[in-house]
Write a structure and sequence with these properties.
Blueprint: H1 4-17, H2 21-25, E1 28-31, H3 39-52, E2 56-59, H4 61-74, E3 78-82, H5 91-101, E4 107-111, H6 114-119, H7 123-137, E5 142-146, H8 154-167, E6 171-173, H9 185-195, E7 201-205, H10 211-219, E8 224-227, H11 230-241
Parallel strand pairs: 1-2, 1-8, 2-3, 3-4, 4-5, 5-6, 6-7, 7-8
Helix pairs in contact: 1-10, 3-4, 5-7, 7-8, 8-9, 10-11
Length: about 240
């Protein structure tokens, strides 16, 4: 995170900016992607997103289709993961997933092919550009690309972020949380340092469970936070500031 005074200054800034429960909740994308959770749990995520004021609820395409009407009634925006968890599917399969949910969501989090990113496959940029364009054509407002940053060395991460930027996505997301925990400040900062030159925003995800985790990720450059522990994050902030 650089020198200690820089870290302290950054934490002080985010503490001022995100020091209220409402403000912090507004950048949290409350997430539930567990394979052993059913529709009732997806509805709980929608309920919590409504009551805490989270930016959106992030669910699998299956759960999005099951709770879209319920979320609409609650005034909760939905985001679907595409190509989860490894991005290994052919582009046609990812296009089909996007088509399946485009009318029901305000955003999609698309998993880039992690193995292709590790290889430096030049086809990644073309695939991501096609998927971003397809999502836009379907009316999706926010497109984020997951690159699993902790698994990439600096050279591979730089290539990945460049591909995300060229594709026209709104955010590069650090991790799915499945293979790595990309919400730590070092990973967020690594990603941000590559992204900021392109005007690309960073979504930090993976291992964010408390207000301190959240504030550290924001201090490192994140603009959005993905977590399955949204209520705990907000409640720990309330205890710290109350």
């Amino acid at each position: 995170m650089g020198n200690q005074p820089g870290l302290i200054e950054a934490l002080a800034r985010v503490a001022r900016e995100y020091g209220s429960a409402e403000r912090l909740a507004s950048v949290i994308e409350h997430t539930m992607l567990s394979p052993n959770k059913g529709v009732r749990e997806a509805m709980r995520i929608v309920d919590e997103s409504s009551s805490y004021g989270f930016a959106c609820a992030v669910l699998t395409p299956y759960h999005v289709t099951k709770v879209a009407g319920y979320a609409r009634d609650k005034g909760v925006e939905l985001c679907a993961v595409i190509g989860f968890p490894g991005g290994f599917q052919p582009v046609s399969a990812k296009r089909a997933e996007i088509m399946h949910v485009a009318s029901l969501v305000s955003g999609v989090d698309i998993v880039a092919n992690i193995q292709a990113l590790v290889d430096g496959d030049p086809g990644v940029a073309e695939e991501l550009g096609e998927l971003v364009d397809y999502a836009r054509e379907g009316g999706v407002g926010h497109v984020k690309i997951i690159v699993e940053a902790p698994l990439l060395d600096d050279e591979a991460l730089a290539r990945a972020v460049e591909a995300v930027a060229k594709a026209g996505a709104d955010y590069v997301k650090t991790s799915t949380g499945v293979y790595s925990k990309g919400g730590d400040p070092v990973t967020v900062l690594r990603t941000f340092q590559h992204a900021e030159g392109y005007g690309l925003k960073v979504k930090a995800a993976g291992g964010i469970r408390t207000a301190l985790d959240a504030l550290l990720a924001l201090a490192a450059g994140a603009a959005r936070l993905g977590t399955s522990s949204g209520p705990r994050v907000v409640e720990t902030l309330e205890r710290l500031t109350g």
